[in-house]
Specification:
Elements (H helix, E strand, L loop, with lengths): L1 H14 L5 H5 L1 H10 L8 H13 L2 H12 L11 H4 L3 H16 L13 H8 L4 H10 L1 H13 L6 H9 L7 H9 L6 H10 L9 H19 L24
GO molecular function: metallochaperone activity; unfolded protein binding
Keywords: Nitrate assimilation
InterPro entries: DMSO/NO3_reduct_chaperone, NO3_reductase_chaperone_NarJ, TorD-like_sf
């Protein structure tokens, strides 16, 4: 069961990644992981399987454009966990530094360009932990997952299935209800006018208090460009995790 949970967590992480030919090639493996993943009856397993099949049939450029429109324009559906807690405050920089140190203490080595609060990366980390520790970490971010699910649902996005499934794993899917009204009433932040306003406010950022903070902020700015320009690995295997096995330490706050 532990292996099935780990593979399922990695499959969920991959489904949140930017669509690539390698991801499409791995979809049969991903579907198999979803079929074997130990999920409660309330979890949207059938919907996950249908979505993974649909992703294989949609033209890749169409999937990529939809992904960029959903996650790279505006902040309300950001896959950076601390975006929903700290925004662009200095607290966010410190929270990322703290989480990065927890990864490192656990032997979980990140690429220098990776942001520690990026949800697919966080799920990859969880895939290396025992089930009870996975539940602890998911409980720690359940409020973020619930808000993200509600916001993605308002956009009729299948990507809402991932945080919904994570909440189902710990029996906390009811938290989504508390955020649905809020998500429906929030003004759109992915319009050209809203995006321009953000750029005008943050053309220059002086919030870094250390070289490490500067590196994290720089990494955030590079993430979108590098997603499109970095050569992808030849294959993506959800059962091929080369990072050292970490030990759990602390939580996300």
């Amino acid at each position: 069961m532990a292996d099935s949970l780990a593979l399922g967590m990695r499959a969920l992480a991959r489904m949140l990644d930017y669509p690539t030919p390698e991801l499409v090639a791995a979809l049969p493996e991903i579907r198999e992981a979803f079929e074997r993943m130990p999920l409660p009856s309330a979890a949207p397993r059938r919907a996950l399987l249908e979505w993974s099949q649909q992703l294989a049939e949609v033209p890749l450029l169409e999937s990529q454009a939809a992904y960029v429109a959903l996650f790279d324009r505006g902040r309300s559906t950001s896959l950076l966990l601390f975006e929903h807690v700290h925004g662009e405050s200095r607290d966010r920089g410190q929270a990322m530094v703290d989480l990065l140190r927890q990864y490192e203490d656990a032997g979980f080595v990140l690429d220098r360009r990776e942001l520690p609060d990026y949800l697919p990366l966080f799920l990859e980390y969880l895939s290396t932990l025992p089930g009870h520790d996975v539940a602890h970490w998911l409980g720690d971010i359940s409020h973020i997952l619930a808000l993200l699910t509600a916001r993605l649902e308002t956009r009729d996005s299948r990507y809402a299935l991932v945080p919904h499934t994570l909440l189902s794993l710990i029996g906390e899917e009811s938290q989504i209800d508390a955020h649905r009204d809020q998500a429906k009433q929030e003004p759109a932040d992915n319009t050209p006018a809203a995006i321009d306003a953000v750029w005008e406010e943050e053309a220059v950022r002086f919030s870094a208090e250390s070289d490490e903070d500067c590196a994290l902020q720089s990494a955030e700015g590079q993430r979108l460009a590098e997603r499109r320009n970095t050569v992808q690995p030849e294959t993506i295997r959800i059962d091929d995790l080369t990072r050292p096995n970490p030990q759990p330490s602390g939580g996300v706050s």
